[in-house]
Amino acid sequence: xxxxxxxxxxxxxxxxxxxxxxxxxxxxxxxxxxxxxxxxxxxxxxxxxxxxxxxxxxxxxxxxxxxxxxxxxxxxxxxxxxxxxxxxxxxxxxxxxxxxxxxxxxxxxxxxxxxxxxxxxxxxxxxxxxxxxxxxxxxxxxxxxxxxxxxxxxxxxxxxxxxxxxxxxxxxxxxxxxxxxxxxxxxxxxxxxxxxxxxxxxxxxxxxxxxxxxxxxxxxxxxxxxxxxxxxxxxxxxxxxxxxxxxxxxxxxxxxxxxxxxxxxxxxxxxxxxxxxxxxxxxxxxxxxxxxxxxxxxxxxxxxxxxxxxxxxxxxxxxxxxxxxxxxxxxxxxxxxxxxxxxxxxxxxxxxxxxxxxxxxxxxxxxxxx
Length: 370
Description:
The chain has helices spanning 41-49, 56-76, 81-96, 103-118, 123-152, 181-188, 205-216, 229-235, 260-269, 301-304, 345-367, and strands spanning 12-14, 21-24, 35-38, 161-164, 194-198, 221-224, 240-243, 247-249, 254-257, 274-277, 283-284, 323-326, 333-336, 339-341. By secondary structure, it is of the alpha/beta class. It has a 7-stranded mixed beta sheet with strand order 6-5-4-7-10-13-14, with helices on both faces. The chain has a 4-stranded mixed beta sheet with strand order 11-8-9-12, covered by helices on one side. Strands 1-2-3 form a 3-stranded antiparallel beta sheet. Helix 2 runs antiparallel to helix 5. The longest helix has 30 residues, at 123-152. The radius of gyration is 20 Å and the shape is globular.
């Protein structure tokens, strides 16, 4: 069987001299494929808030690279190590508060804070340590995406149709994605997988982003408005549902892009297995249930105006949460880089997170300079 490898879009990379970041500006897709340089704290925060970069794993990578780039800039100014540490505290607070639901953001900031606390030397040495940690987070995400894809590909025997919501592909990560990773893995080995992409209103991440990256890869994709999913399930239901997540509670409740919960209800009603795919870094064992997950509410004009003219009266109220909570009872399995986890999730997810942390510490020890 002929195998093929996909060249996925590069979502983020270092700017000149490692003093900035170059991101693929996702607000311009699918019409324009352009990079934007981020060099200030406000640049990084704005890019995260405005969804120029989005997806929990990519937000974490962006924050890590942002902190390291800002540290390199400060070190180049000749400031002291103590002064750099003071500045870092302000940068970290600003970035950590940029989007409250995506747990990878806080997770990445904590990792860089721990790396800084353990580092010694002048400001240049501290900045180098932060850059190394940012690179490690980025590379780990690439490996995690591949591992998630290979684990979940076992759920695709060949010829299936998959429905997904929002974008949990390469555009949301540093690798081949989470929910779309098994689609890429299956296609690499010659298996035909058809994807239904919910349009994902109001910002259309499914039609603008998921359909764009799958079409670019030559994978069959069909776009449907969110309110058409019920008709699809009633007439020709997909074989399986794959979605990503911005935060998974300890009990397996899942926060994901608004509209995920109705999709899970439809899948349950029609007997379609509903899987959540995310790295262990998205599992928040400190959050017991989905009721404790903070839900970001977006600008009302994202609903009123969308991408063009006024679509609702200015005086009308707008309810616009960015995420909803899917209860664990509707989730057939959660796939991380550690495997396919089944209920009770309080046990299986905790074990996966512990194993991932042990592996990361072993890897750090192997690569630590002597």
